[in-house]
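Researcher: I'm preparing a figure for a lab meeting and need a structural model of a single chain. I don't have an experimental structure, so a prediction will have to do for now. The sequence is pasted below. Please return the structure as tokens so I can convert it later.
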Amino acid sequence: MDSLVACKFSFFGASLEEYAELLSATTGSEYSPQRLKEIGRRICLTERFYNCSNGFSRKDDILPERFFNEPGSSGDGIQIDPINRERFEEELDKYYRIRGLNADGCFDDEGFLDKQP
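Model: Understood. Here is the structure written out token by token.
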């Protein structure tokens, strides 16, 4: 959404198909929903690559301690349990695998950017 310079809240009212149509009409180049997803993936990984190159890693992919220790509330009397730290770590591992990152959340391939279109 950020790269489309579109309001994040408007994303809830339009589909990826509609955004692809709008971008195609605006630019004169053909965009499909799948192409938009791929562009978003590359943007996300490029940002991650630069962050890793500047010393960021798994140690920075953490929530504030209170999220693991204190219950939350929706304000309507609904209690929200603290996040299970072990489950959080498991899900972070899954995310890294899905994104093709190593266990530290970074890239094994230093030439990642050179291989991007």
